[in-house]
Structures are given as C-alpha cells and as structure tokens.
Amino acid sequence: MLTQSVSSQPLRWQRSRSNSLLRQIEIFLIAAQFILFLWWDQVFRVNSAKNRQKRAKWLLKQILNLGPTFIKIAQSLSTRADLIPLEYIQEFSQLQDRVPEFSSIEAIAIIETELGKPITELFLTFDSIPLASASLGQVHRAKLFSGEEVVIKVQRTGLEQLFNLDFAVVAQLIQVGNILPSIRKYKLEEVYLQFFELLLSEIDYINEGKNATRFRENFKDFPNVKVPLVYWDYTTRKVLTLEYMPGVKVDARQSLIEKGINLDQVIQTGICSYLKQLLIDGFFQSDPHPGNMAVNPQGELIFYDFGTMAEVKSMAKDQMIKTFMAVLKKDTDEVLETLIYMGLIEPISDMRAIRRIIQFLLDEFRDKPVDIKAFERISEEVYMMFQQQPFRLPSQMTFIIKAITTLDGIARSLDPKYNLLAASQPFVMSITMSDGKGNLILTLSTQTLSFIRQTLMNFNSNNKMMRQLQDRIEQGELEFRVRSLESERTLKKIYIAIKGLIYTCLTGFSIFTSFALLTTAYSKFAVISFGLAGLFSLFVLRCLITLMIRDRMDRNI
After folding, report:
1. What family does this belong to (predicted)?
2. pLDDT tens digit string along 29-76?
3. What CA–CA distances, in Å, run from 535 to 154, 216, 293, 532?
4. How many Cβ atoms sit within 10 Å of the Cβ of residue 331?
5. How many other CB atoms are found less than 10 A from the CB of residue 498?
6. Structure-model confidence comparison of residues 488 and 425, the more confident one
C-alpha cells in the first residue's frame, strides 16, 4: 500500500549541476565577492565583531544556495576555531542541514533500481511522504512483509557527480589562496583531503550500515542505550534500511516532562554513553546534535545517523582515572599528555598556545556549563599565538570539541544547573567497579590523596602567587618586543605588491569569464563580469601608485 505521492521543484544547486561551467562561475563569483568584502573591511578598518557577524550571515546564505558540498564544509568549519573567527563559528553552528524533500516518485525509482524489485514486492506498506529530509537524502517509513517496521534512507541523485565537480573548484580556490603566506601556513590541502574523504564515505550507505552495526555491538550490554538494527537485505550504497525506533527529541524538555521521563537520568545516560564511546570504544558519533538522538517512553536514549563516525586511541582504565583526577586538579600537563597519547594533539616544539587553551578550559568549564561566548576573552591572545607559531587541531579533536559542546547544550536545555563532572560519576564508578578493581581502586586512592594534598597546599597564598607567576612565564604572557621600522616598511611594500598581484589575477579571471559568458545563453551576465574587471583594474592601479609613493618616501628618508 502506498500513500499519496508528493513532488517538489528542483533546488538552485540541482539546476546548476547539469552545467559544469555555470557551476564553476557561480562558485568563483561568490568567492571573489567574499574576498572583496574582506579586503574592503581590512583596508577601511571596519573589521569589528559586528561587521564580521554581518559577513558571516551573508556567507551562510550563499552556502545554503550552493548546496550539499558547501553546507557540509560549513558544518565542518563550525568546529575549527583554529582556522576561522568566532563570529563565523557561531553562524555555522546554527546551520541546519534541512532542504525541501525531492519527489517521492524519484525516491521509489532509486529504491527499485538499487534493490532490483518493484516497491510493492519489497514492502507491505511504504509511506511516500518522507519523515525527514536533508541535503544528502531523505527518510521514508515502511513495513516489511514479515511485519517489522523500518525506515528507509534514500540518497539524492547526482551527489557524487556534484561532489567531484565542487571538489575540483575548491582545490583551485585553495591553490589561489596559497599565494598568500598568511593562508599557506594553515596547510589547507590537508584539511581539504581529510574533509572530502569523510564526505565521500558519508554518501556510502554500506559504510554507514557497518558503523551502525559496530555501534550497536558496543552498546549491547547497556540497556539504557538503543541503536537501530540494520536490514542488510534492503541496504545498498544509496539505500539504507534500519529498524524503526520512534522517540521524543532529546532536547524537547516539556514533552519529556509530560511523559514522566527522568531528565537527570537522560543527561547521565547521554554523558556516560559518550565517555564510553570516546575512552573505552575509541569509536564515537562525531555529530551528536538533537536530531540524531531521541528518548523512548521508557527513558532510554536512541542514537540515529552513523554516517560521520570518528576513531581515537582508546585508553586503559587506570589512565582514565588519572585523567579525571587531572581535570579535578586542573593539572594542565597531565591533561595535555593524555591528549597527545590519544592522538588528539599534535606535539610541536612550542606548546604554549595549546597549554594556554587547556588551562583556560579547565579554569572556565570544569565546574560550569560550556559557553562559547567565554572564548571571546582569550580569542585575541590565542590568535596572536597562532600567528607566531601556526597550529592546526587534528580533525578528531575538533569532532570531540563539537560533540562535547553540543552535548553540553542539550544537557543545559534539560537542566540549566547540571554539572558535567556530576553527570559523569556513574561512568567513573563503573570503571572502578569493573574487572581488576584492586589495581584501579589503588590508582583512585593514590590520585585522590594527591588531589587532597594539592588542595591543602593551595591554601598557602605565597605558593599560589608564585605558581601563578610561573604559569604566566611558561605561557609566554611576559614578552619583550623589538620593532624594526625598516623591516616594517619593507613588509608593507611586499603586502601591497601581493595585493596588486591578486587583483591582477582577478582582473584576468573576470575578463575570461566575460568572454566565456558571451558564448552562452547567459550573455547578459557578461556585463557584470566586465564591470568587476574594471573595478579590479582600478585596485591594481591604486596598488601601483601606492608602491611608487612609498618608494619615493623611503628614498628621502
């Protein structure tokens, strides 16, 4: 039995993907416009937080129009405080990967092609109206002839073709950006390769099914956590069939209260299950947003969506206890050693910036909810450290940061007064009461004694002041700066020359685009491109004049 079919109009990015030249021009024009905005803000010194937020909102709107590839890029960048300003992170964090559903006729055709049978022979019932829709696909509800209720995840057509085209364009943009040393130092090629490898695996539903099966196996002995069963006979690279597990969204506080569900228990289950994923299994869901988790009437936590999983090196249980105690003691060195051991921090010659961030996190968020606005207090200082010695967080670490802040936000929506350490106590107790508990209790006792000793020592104000002074020296907060006017003048001239080179490239590209558009049905847009070429040529002329003036002034000094 089929419900009534629905259809929808193709989205803007779906219409443009059929014309590779038009797609490239669209992406390059948006990139050129954004670069122009940034240049304008820098030259006229309007780079305030309010203006950066305005630019971030504009960029987010363009990303939504560009479609799945760039939506995923923005979602990934929302964790990269080491790459983009805080205002962009805040805007990208609010990005919801929701787009209008595609035609149910198209969805049925994909299912029939992938599974090799008519829809009426595959399912007893099939709901043509999707339960949910996103940029990569949509989900339909159905019932098997054996009576089990399932959900079917169907992938949008043409995604692989679109990704390959967008990948090539992004690679070209990175090559252009690498002309500037300030961009080259971030090694964006590595970020690019990591991201697109992850994105290509996300559109392979066989891979997602294997992830779901592994995740389900990891939690088979945990009754408070539910993971849908994969129906492999109805699963291919473009179709994924899972057990239907309905529930209330994990952040729907009022609905959970009305159903009599214990909110504290939900918070504990969420925090402890994630600690198990991270520390014991070494295999965790990297995007645990409210749409990927739900609570059933029994108060059990349900996990959905296993397309983006990440792996880290798991820890021995005695090491976990040491790490928890290090957090309680605010022992930056111990926490840093743990992060390096797990491969979450890349060791470099100067660890001051990393140590400063860890110390800030321990001071601010050990006993309080995570608040991204608090990062504004150290963002400028940390940014200066990154400028002096470029540092890029490994992708696993950025996934963990995003997951923790997301889980913290969910917990706060359920109970604004919750405490992260209190919520994680059941997990710590489960470790100490497991096999080999004698050694673990000895480790716990030793670490607790060390914590008490340190607490008593901190009552000595002189020792405390000396420690603070030592920390400031170690963190590089006391510095000597020497200015060289001659070097500054030379660097300014080099900077202006590089800007002139970029504007020359943009002028040439705009002229090329204009002539290309004249030979297509979009010839009317050639006028805009010619106008941009004229504007960029004026900027080139301005750079040349500025260089001549500075050169004459330097000779007269």
Report:
1. Belongs to the protein kinase superfamily. ADCK protein kinase family.
2. 898 888 888 888 887 777 788 888 899 999 988 988 888 888 888 877
3. 46, 58, 50, 5
4. 20
5. 15
6. 425
Tokens of 544: 């040349």
287 catalytic per annotation: yes
- Tell me how many degrees the CA angle 214-217-223 measures, rounded to the nearest 5: 135
Structure tokens at 281: 């299994």
What is residue 377's three-state secondary structure? helix
- Residue 137 contacts residue 155 (beta carbons within 8 Å): yes
Task: Check if the beta carbon of residue 117 is closer than 8 Å to that of residue 239.
Answer: no
Which residues lie across from 302 on neighbouring strands?
226, 294
Which residues are bridge partners to 248 per DSSP?
295
DSSP secondary structure letters along 302-368: EE---SSEEE-----HHHHHHHHHHHHHT-HHHHHHHHHHTTSS---S--HHHHHHHHHHHHHHSSS
Cβ atoms of 154 and 111 closer than 8 Å: yes
Q: Is 261 helix (H, G, I), strand (E, B) or coil?
A: coil
Q: Using alpha carbons only, how large is the chain's radius of gyration in Å?
A: 27
Cα–Cα dist 272/282, whole Å: 14
The DSSP call for residue 375 is G
pLDDT in tens, 500-535: 778 788 887 778 777 777 777 767 777 777 788 788
**Rounded to whole angstroms, how far apart are CA atoms 150 and 122?**
12
Q: Predicted confidence band at 127 (pLDDT cuts at 50, 70, 90)?
A: very high
Q: Cα separation of 510 and 490, whole Å?
A: 30
pLDDT tens-place string over residues 157-197: 888 888 888 888 888 888 877 777 766 766 778 777 877 88
> Are 322 and 443 spatial neighbours (Cβ–Cβ below 8 Å)?
yes
211's tokens: 């992830």
Fill in the DSSP letter of residue 103.
P
Give 258-272 pLDDT, tens digit per residue: 999 999 999 999 989
Strands 301-303 and 225-226: what pairing? parallel
Amino acid at 230: V
* Torsion 298-301-306-311 (CA) sign: negative
* End-to-end Cα distance, the chain: 88
**Whole-number Å distance between alpha carbons of 290 and 255:** 14
Which residue of the set 127, 166, 251, 287 is catalytic?
287
Residue closest to 160 by CA, chosen among 98, 69, 24: 69
Tell me the sheet residues that pair with 153.
139, 240
* Cβ 2 vs Cβ 128: under 8 Å: yes
DSSP per-residue string spanning 513-534:
HHHHHHTSTTGGGHHHHHHHHH
At 68-126, the pLDDT tens digits run: 888 888 877 776 666 778 788 878 877 655 567 889 999 999 999 999 999 999 999 99
The rounded distance, in Å, linking the Cα atoms of 143 and 151 is 8
What local confidence, expressed as pLDDT, does residue 373 receive? 52
In this predicted structure, what is the pLDDT of residue 452?
45
Residues 411-457 pLDDT 10s:
888 888 877 777 877 876 776 665 544 444 445 445 444 544 554 45
Determine contact, residues 404/372, Cβ cutoff 8 Å. no
